[in-house]
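Worked problem 6 (solution included).
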Amino acid sequence: MPTDTPQPAFVLVRPQMGENIGAAARAMWNFGLDRMRITSPRDGWPNQKAVAMASGAGRLLDEAILCDSTAQAVEDCTYVYATTARQRDLTKPVFTPEAAMIDARDRIAAGGKVAVLFGPERAGLENEDIVRANAIISVPVNPDFPSLNLGQCVLLTGYEWRRATQEAAPQTMQAADDWASRTEIEKLGDHYEQRLEEAGFFFPDHKSDSMKLNLRNLWSRMPFTQADVRMLHGIMRQMVRWKERGD
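Solution. The predicted structure is:
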């Protein structure tokens, strides 16, 4: 059974290769999507090549809804997006994948039923398919090579759906349970400053204070673990021993 998570249906329109259907299923499940609909697959259905390619996402293929036409695939939907890389002579709103999935999220939250159309591998959706959509999703690809594989397009759209519905910080720091304290970092700075002073690093004299300040600022700017601090102490001690042996 499909999950209870509200989400759009992904409609594969006249897909040609079983491998690409399987890749699309795998891409969908990567991002928690499991509402697949398929219209008129060229190589018939079920398709063992699709099953092999889907790997752990074979359940999506078992539960996929097989349709005779695009009209049938979206007949219960209140809003439909059509993915295309080509310019069309059809007046419709055009979204990036990111904006489309934010819009889809809001429509589904308001009680709507949403679908996204993905065209066959050779030439994409026909205008007869696109006229059944309310809006277009256009991926900002290289204009000299705009073609996207079916699985790639599904993956990209699924990723944007996940981003739109799952809060995720754009940058995080992997958790550590041994962050260095300010005292440990201060002692590391003292160690380096002392040894560098002995080596004549802070030269000329009139720049010495600013060089030491910059070095202290470097230590404070970096997130150190206790293991990092121990390693840096060890590096400096070994360098001093090596220098003394050389003398």
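Discussion: The chain is about 45% helix and 10% strand.
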